[in-house]
Amino acid sequence: MRQIVLDTETTGLDPARGHRIIEIAALELVNRRPTDKHFHSYVNPERDSEEAALQIHGLTREFLSDKRKFKEIAAEFLAFVNGAELIIHNAAFDIGFLNHELNLVGLQPIAACCPSVIDTLKMARELNPGKRNGLDALCDRYQIDNSARTLHGALLDAQLLAEVYLAMTRGQERLVMDEE
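The chain above was modelled as a monomer; its predicted structure follows.
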């Protein structure tokens, strides 16, 4: 079974207000084991980030100005995720942004190539009702080292989410096998 752990960073919270994806990362799992395959790209949104979003990810318009636009990465991204089950924390947010970006470049919604999505936030809320279920809280709960996460970043967050997902589903507890 092929799964893709996916995360995005955005200029704000609402694509209907013109907010855009500025970073996207997708990590491949096959039969619950990580492969060396991943997709990662910063994206030039051609706009500033909201101040609150900038405080979360730290990705400035200046840093993103020479990066490819979404239309330039869309085919490569879709080829990478095609046919896989997506694993996303707060899936409605990322799917909403992906569908908006895909629509802007005249492409079908993400469900056309990835018909199945697992929302780890929904899973976490069902497993731990009434508790904090953000990625940092889940890392603490499942004893996953997130000390490198000083700001949100799609690639690091996808790596952490992969470990959290495996721990939450009671399978393999770690992505990296400890050396004996």
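The first helix runs from residue 51 to 57.
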